[in-house]
C-alpha cells in the first residue's frame, strides 16, 4: 500500500533530474491506435479524470499522486480503449487498472443487477487473487458505492462459490483455471457472461500462459463479447504476452513504461544488487554470516529452489537463534495467506520462500527421480503442490528491505520477479545473490540482460561489500558443525510436521478468515518458529571473532534500522544508499538519491554518514512527482 499521509515520502524535495514520463504508445498493434506524444508533465489523479470518491479513498490510504504507469494508462482505460500496459514490478499496475475499472462501474451502481459479473480480473495465482480482491474491496468500502467484488479459486467448494455469486457481484477476481470449473459445476453461465461482461483484465499477463492456463483462457475468450474492453498488464515482455494480445485484444493501445532515457530497466534502480561468490556447500556459512552479523537490513525474503532446502535452512538458522518462517506451495492456501499477512504485518523478519509452483515441482521431481531418498520422502508426504500457488510473481510483500537468492533462480525473468519483491512503492531495497560455480551460467545471463546490449560492461550486480572473508571464516567451524546436525531425517520430519500443523490450522483459519478477514491474531505461526533454545555459544557470536570492518558495517545497518524505527514500524522502508544516480529509479516515480560510491566499510542499507535513510526520509534528494 502507499505511504501514510505526511510520510517521509511527502517531505522530500524535488530533485533536479526530470521524472521520465511513461513512454506513450510503443508500437502499433494490428492497426492499433498510436497516441500523441504528450508534454512531460506530471498529472494529478484529478487531472486524469478520476472520480472524487476514488481520489478521497486513495487519499485515506495515503496515496496522493499517480505513478507513471497510472498517469499513462488511466485516461486510455477511461476512454474505453483496450490497453496493453507493461511496467516494471512494483510500479502500481494494480491501481492503474482497478481505478478506471471501478469508475466505469460507478455509473452502473444502483441500477438493476446483472446476472453475471460485468468485470473479470484474471490473475495467475491464488495469492494474487487475494491481493487484488483486498485492494478492490477497500476501494469499494472507502468509496461507499453499491458494488460487490468476490474472489473465486478452484479449490473452493461449489457451495461456497454459489454463495459468493448469489449476491450478484459486479467484479469477479479469479484464476483462469477456475472459470471452466465454474462452467462445469453450473456456478457460472457462459451465456450470462456474454451478456454481462464489460471489462476483462488479465493481470500478470506474462505469467498466465506459463502457468499452463492457455486452454482455460481459450475457453474464456470464446465467450468474451466483442464490445468488452480488455486490459492486459504485465511486468515483462514475452512471446506469451504477444500471444495473449492477439488472442483477446482488439486494436489495443500498447503502453510501455520506459524510465531510462534509452533503455529499459527491468529492476528498479532503487534496489542495490549484490552478489557473493561461494561454493554450494558454503552457502549456509555465507547466509549465516549475512544474517548473524547483521550486515543486511531486515525484513528479509530468502529464496530457495526446493522445499527441502527451505527446511534445511530453517533448521540450520534456528540453531543460531535466527527464527524464520516458511512459505511454499505445499502448504494449504489459508496458511499461506496467513503467513504472508503476518510477514507483511511485521510479525517476523525472515521468510524463506520457494519460487512459484512450476519451478519447485520440476526440482522436486528431478530430485525424486535420481534419489531414492527423495522418492521415499515423496511417498511419505505425498506433497500436493498447489497448481495455483505463486509467491514470487506479483505478490506485494510489504517493506522487504532485502531479498536473498540463496539458490539462484533458473531464469532471468525469475530473477527480475524475485528482486521485484523489494523496492516496492516508495521504498528502496537491496538484494544479495549467493552464486556457486554451477550457477555462474544463469548469473552471467542475468547480468548481461540487466546491463543491456550497449552497456555490457556496466556493473549492475556488484560484489557484496560489507562482509569480509575473515568475518565469514570466523563462523566456519560453527556453521559446518551445525550443518552436519541438520540431517535428511530432521528435514523430512520438520517438513512433515509443518505440513500436518498447517493442515489442521487451515480449517480453523478458514472460518476465522471468513468471520474476521482483517484480523491477524487468532493463530500465530509460532509453531513455524522453533521453541528450542539455541545453545549460547551459537546464539551469541563473540565480538572478537568479527573483524572491525564487518563490525562497522553491522553497526551501520543497526543505526539505519534504528533511524527507521525498527523493522516492526509500520512506516518507512528502504534505508539504502543509491549506487549511482540514474533516471528512472523508483518504480513508482523517478528519484535521484544522493549516492556516492558505496561500500567502504558501510553496511548495506544506510548512508555513508551513518544516518539511515528510510525510504526517502533522510533521502532529501528524492524527487517528488
Ligand atoms: N500512486 C501510488 N502512490 C503510492 N503507492 C502506490 C501507488 N500506486 C500503488 N502503490 C503501492 O505500490 C505497491 C506496488 O503496487 P502494485 O502491486 O500494483 O505493483 P505492480 O506494478 O503490480 O507490481 P508487480 O508487477 O510485482 O505485480 C503497492 O503497495 C501499492 O499499494
Automatic annotation (TrEMBL):
<dbReference type="GO" id="GO:0016787">
    <property type="term" value="F:hydrolase activity"/>
</dbReference>
<dbReference type="GO" id="GO:0003723">
    <property type="term" value="F:RNA binding"/>
</dbReference>
<keyword id="KW-0067">ATP-binding</keyword>
<feature type="region of interest" description="Disordered">
    <location>
        <begin position="561"/>
        <end position="625"/>
    </location>
</feature>
<dbReference type="InterPro" id="IPR050079">
    <property type="entry name" value="DEAD_box_RNA_helicase"/>
</dbReference>
<feature type="short sequence motif" description="Q motif">
    <location>
        <begin position="43"/>
        <end position="71"/>
    </location>
</feature>
<dbReference type="InterPro" id="IPR011545">
    <property type="entry name" value="DEAD/DEAH_box_helicase_dom"/>
</dbReference>
<keyword id="KW-0347">Helicase</keyword>
<keyword id="KW-0547">Nucleotide-binding</keyword>
<keyword id="KW-0378">Hydrolase</keyword>
<comment type="similarity">
    <text>Belongs to the DEAD box helicase family. DDX56/DBP9 subfamily.</text>
</comment>
<feature type="region of interest" description="Disordered">
    <location>
        <begin position="1"/>
        <end position="46"/>
    </location>
</feature>
<feature type="compositionally biased region" description="Basic and acidic residues">
    <location>
        <begin position="359"/>
        <end position="374"/>
    </location>
</feature>
<dbReference type="Pfam" id="PF00270">
    <property type="entry name" value="DEAD"/>
</dbReference>
<dbReference type="Pfam" id="PF00271">
    <property type="entry name" value="Helicase_C"/>
</dbReference>
<feature type="domain" description="Helicase C-terminal">
    <location>
        <begin position="289"/>
        <end position="472"/>
    </location>
</feature>
<feature type="domain" description="Helicase ATP-binding">
    <location>
        <begin position="74"/>
        <end position="255"/>
    </location>
</feature>
<dbReference type="InterPro" id="IPR027417">
    <property type="entry name" value="P-loop_NTPase"/>
</dbReference>
<keyword id="KW-0694">RNA-binding</keyword>
<dbReference type="InterPro" id="IPR014014">
    <property type="entry name" value="RNA_helicase_DEAD_Q_motif"/>
</dbReference>
<dbReference type="InterPro" id="IPR001650">
    <property type="entry name" value="Helicase_C-like"/>
</dbReference>
<feature type="compositionally biased region" description="Acidic residues">
    <location>
        <begin position="17"/>
        <end position="27"/>
    </location>
</feature>
<dbReference type="InterPro" id="IPR014001">
    <property type="entry name" value="Helicase_ATP-bd"/>
</dbReference>
<dbReference type="GO" id="GO:0003724">
    <property type="term" value="F:RNA helicase activity"/>
</dbReference>
<feature type="domain" description="DEAD-box RNA helicase Q">
    <location>
        <begin position="43"/>
        <end position="71"/>
    </location>
</feature>
<dbReference type="GO" id="GO:0005524">
    <property type="term" value="F:ATP binding"/>
</dbReference>
<feature type="region of interest" description="Disordered">
    <location>
        <begin position="359"/>
        <end position="378"/>
    </location>
</feature>
<protein>
    <recommendedName>
        <fullName>RNA helicase</fullName>
        <ecNumber>3.6.4.13</ecNumber>
    </recommendedName>
</protein>
Amino acid at each position: 500500500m502507499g505511504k501514510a499521509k505526511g510520510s517521509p515520502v511527502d517531505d522530500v524535495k524535488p530533485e533536479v533530474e526530470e521524472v521520465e514520463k511513461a513512454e506513450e504508445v510503443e508500437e502499433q498493434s494490428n492497426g492499433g491506435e498510436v497516441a500523441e506524444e504528450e508534454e512531460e508533465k506530471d498529472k494529478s489523479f484529478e487531472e486524469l479524470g478520476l472520480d472524487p470518491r476514488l481520489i478521497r479513498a486513495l487519499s485515506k490510504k495515503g496515496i496522493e499522486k499517480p505513478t507513471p504507469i497510472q498517469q499513462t494508462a488511466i485516461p486510455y482505460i477511461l476512454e474505453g480503449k483496450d490497453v496493453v500496459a507493461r511496467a516494471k514490478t512494483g510500479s502500481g499496475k494494480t491501481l492503474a487498472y482497478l481505478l478506471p475499472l471501478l469508475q466505469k462501474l460507478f455509473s452502473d451502481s444502483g441500477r438493476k443487477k446483472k446476472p453475471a459479473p460485468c468485470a473479470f480480473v484474471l490473475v495467475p495465482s491464488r495469492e494474487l487473487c487475494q491481493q487484488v480482491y483486498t485492494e478492490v474491496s477497500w476501494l469499494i468500502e472507502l468509496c461507499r458505492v453499491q458494488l460487490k467484488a468476490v474472489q473465486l479459486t478452484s479449490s473452493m467448494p461449489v457451495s461456497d462459490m454459489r454463495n459468493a455469486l448469489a449476491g450478484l457481484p459486479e467484479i469477479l477476481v479469479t484464476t483462469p483455471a477456475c472459470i471452466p470449473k465454474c462452467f462445469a459445476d453450473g456456478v457460472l453461465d457462459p451465456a450470462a457472461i456474454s451478456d454481462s461482461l464489460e471489462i476483462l483484465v488479465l493481470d500478470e499477463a506474462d505469467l498466465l500462459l506459463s502457468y499452463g492456463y492457455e486452454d482455460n483462457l481459450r475457453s474464456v475468450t470464446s465467450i468474451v463479447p466483442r464490445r468488452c474492453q480488455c486490459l492486459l498488464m504485465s511486468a515483462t515482455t514475452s512471446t506469451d504476452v504477444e500471444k495473449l494480445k492477439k488472442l483477446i485484444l482488439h486494436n489495443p493501445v500498447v503502453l510501455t513504461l520506459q524510465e531510462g532515457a534509452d533503455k529499459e530497466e527491468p529492476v528498479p534502480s532503487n534496489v542495490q544488487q549484490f552478489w557473493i561468490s561461494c561454493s554450494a556447500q558454503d552457502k549456509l556459512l555465507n547466509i549465516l554470516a549475512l544474517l548473524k552479523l547483521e550486515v543486511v537490513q531486515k525484513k528479509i525474503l530468502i529464496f530457495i529452489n526446493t522445499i527441502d532446502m527451505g527446511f534445511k535452512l530453517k533448521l540450520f538458522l534456528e540453531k543460531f537463534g535466527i527464527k524464520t518462517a516458511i512459505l511454499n506451495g505445499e502448504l494449504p492456501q489459508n496458511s499461506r495467506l496467513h503467513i504472508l499477512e503476518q510477514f507483511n504485518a511485521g510479525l517476523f523478519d525472515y521468510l524463506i520462500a520457494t519460487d512459484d509452483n512450476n519451478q519447485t515441482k520440476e526440482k522436486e521431481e528431478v530430485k525424486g527421480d535420481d534419489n531414492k531418498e527423495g522418492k521415499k520422502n515423496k511417498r511419505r508426504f505425498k506433497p500436493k503442490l498447489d497448481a495455483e500457488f505463486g509467491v514470487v510473481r506479483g505478490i506485494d510483500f510489504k517493506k522487504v528491505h532485502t531479498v536473498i537468492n540463496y539458490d539462484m533462480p533458473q531464469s532471468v525473468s525469475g530473477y527480475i520477479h524475485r528482486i521485484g519483491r523489494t523496492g516496492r512503492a516508495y521504498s528502496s531495497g537491496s538484494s544479495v545473490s549467493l552464486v556457486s560455480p554451477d550457477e555462474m551460467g544463469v548469473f552471467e545471463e542475468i547480468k548481461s540482460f540487466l546491463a543491456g546490449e550497449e552497456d555490457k560492461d556496466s556493473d549492475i550486480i556488484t560484489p557484496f561489500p560489507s562482509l569480509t572473508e575473515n568475518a565469514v571464516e570466523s563462523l566456519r567451524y560453527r556453521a559446518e558443525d551445525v550443518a552436519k546436525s541438520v540431517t535428511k531425517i530432521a528435514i523430512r520430519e520438520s517438513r512433515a510436521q509443518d505440513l500436518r500443523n498447517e493442515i489442521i490450522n487451515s480449517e480453523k483459519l478458514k472460518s476465522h478468515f471468513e468471520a474476521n478477514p482483517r484480523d491477524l491474531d487468532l493463530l500465530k505461526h509460532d509453531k513455524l518458529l522453533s521453541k528450542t533454545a539455541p545453545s549460547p555459544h551459537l546464539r551469541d557470536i563473540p565480538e572478537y571473532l568479527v573483524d572491525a570492518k564487518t563490525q562497522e558495517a553491522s553497526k551501520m545497518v543497526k543505526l539505519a534500522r534504528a533511524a527507521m524505527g525498527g523493522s516492526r514500524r509500520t512506516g518507512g522502508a528502504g534505508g539504502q544508499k543509491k549506487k549511482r544516480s540514474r533516471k528512472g529509479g523508483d518504480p513508482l516515480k523517478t528519484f535521484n538519491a544522493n549516492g556516492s560510491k558505496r561500500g567502504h566499510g558501510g553496511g548495506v542499507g544506510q548512508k555513508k554518514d551513518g544516518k539511515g535513510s528510510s525510504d526517502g526520509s533522510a533521502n532529501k534528494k528524492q524527487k517528488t512527482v
